Amino acid sequence: MVPGLLISGISPVVLAKPLVAFFFSLLLVFNFKQAQIKKYIGFRAFLLSLLIPGIMMTLFEHPQELIRFIPLVALIWLFPYHKIQIDPKMVYSTSIAAILFLTSARTKTPLFTMPGIKF
Prior knowledge:
By secondary structure, this protein is mostly helical. It is about 70% helix and about 0% strand. Helix 1 runs antiparallel to helix 2, helix 1 packs antiparallel against helix 5 and helix 1 runs parallel beside helix 6. The chain is globular, with a radius of gyration of 16 Å. The protein starts with a helix and ends in a 6-residue tail after the last helix. The model has no long low-confidence stretch (mean pLDDT about 75).
Protein backbone atom coordinates (compact mmCIF):
# COMPACT_ATOMS: atom_id res chain seq x y z
CA MET A 1 0.00 0.00 0.00
CA VAL A 2 2.68 2.52 0.97
CA PRO A 3 4.74 2.18 -2.26
CA GLY A 4 1.51 2.53 -4.24
CA LEU A 5 0.70 5.68 -2.29
CA LEU A 6 4.16 7.11 -2.97
CA ILE A 7 3.98 6.38 -6.70
CA SER A 8 0.43 7.70 -7.00
CA GLY A 9 1.58 11.10 -5.74
CA ILE A 10 3.91 11.59 -8.71
CA SER A 11 1.65 10.01 -11.32
CA PRO A 12 -0.02 12.06 -14.05
CA VAL A 13 -3.00 14.04 -12.76
CA VAL A 14 -5.57 11.79 -14.45
CA LEU A 15 -4.26 8.79 -12.50
CA ALA A 16 -3.00 10.54 -9.37
CA LYS A 17 -6.28 11.66 -7.85
CA PRO A 18 -8.12 8.33 -7.92
CA LEU A 19 -4.98 6.37 -6.95
CA VAL A 20 -4.18 8.64 -4.02
CA ALA A 21 -7.76 8.44 -2.75
CA PHE A 22 -7.78 4.65 -3.09
CA PHE A 23 -4.42 3.95 -1.44
CA PHE A 24 -4.95 6.56 1.27
CA SER A 25 -8.32 5.12 2.23
CA LEU A 26 -6.84 1.60 2.35
CA LEU A 27 -3.97 2.79 4.50
CA LEU A 28 -6.24 4.56 6.97
CA VAL A 29 -8.74 1.72 7.17
CA PHE A 30 -6.08 -0.86 7.96
CA ASN A 31 -4.02 1.35 10.28
CA PHE A 32 -6.54 3.55 12.08
CA LYS A 33 -5.30 2.65 15.56
CA GLN A 34 -1.71 3.50 14.61
CA ALA A 35 -2.76 7.02 13.62
CA GLN A 36 -4.22 7.63 17.07
CA ILE A 37 -0.96 7.16 19.00
CA LYS A 38 -0.29 10.44 20.78
CA LYS A 39 3.27 9.67 21.86
CA TYR A 40 4.91 11.17 18.77
CA ILE A 41 2.51 14.10 18.28
CA GLY A 42 5.26 16.73 18.66
CA PHE A 43 7.53 15.04 16.13
CA ARG A 44 4.65 14.62 13.70
CA ALA A 45 3.71 18.29 14.07
CA PHE A 46 7.32 19.29 13.40
CA LEU A 47 7.48 17.19 10.23
CA LEU A 48 4.13 18.53 9.05
CA SER A 49 5.34 22.09 9.68
CA LEU A 50 8.17 21.45 7.23
CA LEU A 51 5.56 20.83 4.55
CA ILE A 52 3.71 24.11 5.18
CA PRO A 53 5.70 26.25 2.68
CA GLY A 54 5.11 23.74 -0.12
CA ILE A 55 1.46 23.33 0.77
CA MET A 56 0.91 27.10 0.91
CA MET A 57 2.59 27.67 -2.47
CA THR A 58 0.51 24.88 -3.98
CA LEU A 59 -2.65 26.25 -2.38
CA PHE A 60 -2.17 29.67 -3.97
CA GLU A 61 -0.79 28.61 -7.36
CA HIS A 62 -2.37 25.20 -8.11
CA PRO A 63 -5.00 24.28 -5.50
CA GLN A 64 -6.14 21.26 -7.53
CA GLU A 65 -2.72 19.67 -6.89
CA LEU A 66 -3.05 19.63 -3.09
CA ILE A 67 -4.05 15.98 -3.23
CA ARG A 68 -0.44 15.14 -4.05
CA PHE A 69 0.56 16.00 -0.46
CA ILE A 70 -1.73 13.33 1.00
CA PRO A 71 0.84 10.50 0.75
CA LEU A 72 3.42 12.53 2.64
CA VAL A 73 0.94 13.61 5.29
CA ALA A 74 -0.26 10.01 5.69
CA LEU A 75 3.27 8.68 6.11
CA ILE A 76 4.07 11.38 8.64
CA TRP A 77 0.85 10.84 10.58
CA LEU A 78 1.40 7.07 10.76
CA PHE A 79 5.03 7.66 11.82
CA PRO A 80 6.06 4.96 14.24
CA TYR A 81 5.66 2.11 11.80
CA HIS A 82 5.82 -0.55 14.52
CA LYS A 83 2.40 -2.08 13.94
CA ILE A 84 2.07 -1.35 10.25
CA GLN A 85 2.98 -4.38 8.21
CA ILE A 86 5.08 -2.92 5.42
CA ASP A 87 8.23 -4.05 3.76
CA PRO A 88 10.80 -1.34 4.59
CA LYS A 89 13.01 -2.32 1.64
CA MET A 90 10.09 -1.77 -0.73
CA VAL A 91 9.33 1.64 0.78
CA TYR A 92 12.97 2.73 0.70
CA SER A 93 13.52 1.62 -2.90
CA THR A 94 10.26 3.25 -4.01
CA SER A 95 11.20 6.46 -2.21
CA ILE A 96 14.64 6.54 -3.82
CA ALA A 97 13.14 5.87 -7.24
CA ALA A 98 10.58 8.67 -6.74
CA ILE A 99 13.25 11.12 -5.58
CA LEU A 100 15.51 10.26 -8.53
CA PHE A 101 12.59 10.61 -10.94
CA LEU A 102 11.54 13.99 -9.53
CA THR A 103 15.14 15.24 -9.46
CA SER A 104 15.81 14.23 -13.04
CA ALA A 105 12.48 15.63 -14.23
CA ARG A 106 13.13 18.96 -12.49
CA THR A 107 16.67 19.32 -13.83
CA LYS A 108 15.79 18.38 -17.40
CA THR A 109 12.78 20.69 -17.67
CA PRO A 110 14.69 24.00 -17.38
CA LEU A 111 17.29 22.82 -19.88
CA PHE A 112 14.70 22.34 -22.59
CA THR A 113 12.70 25.48 -21.80
CA MET A 114 15.53 28.01 -21.65
CA PRO A 115 14.97 30.75 -24.25
CA GLY A 116 18.53 30.62 -25.62
CA ILE A 117 18.58 26.89 -26.25
CA LYS A 118 16.60 25.41 -29.11
CA PHE A 119 16.41 21.68 -29.63
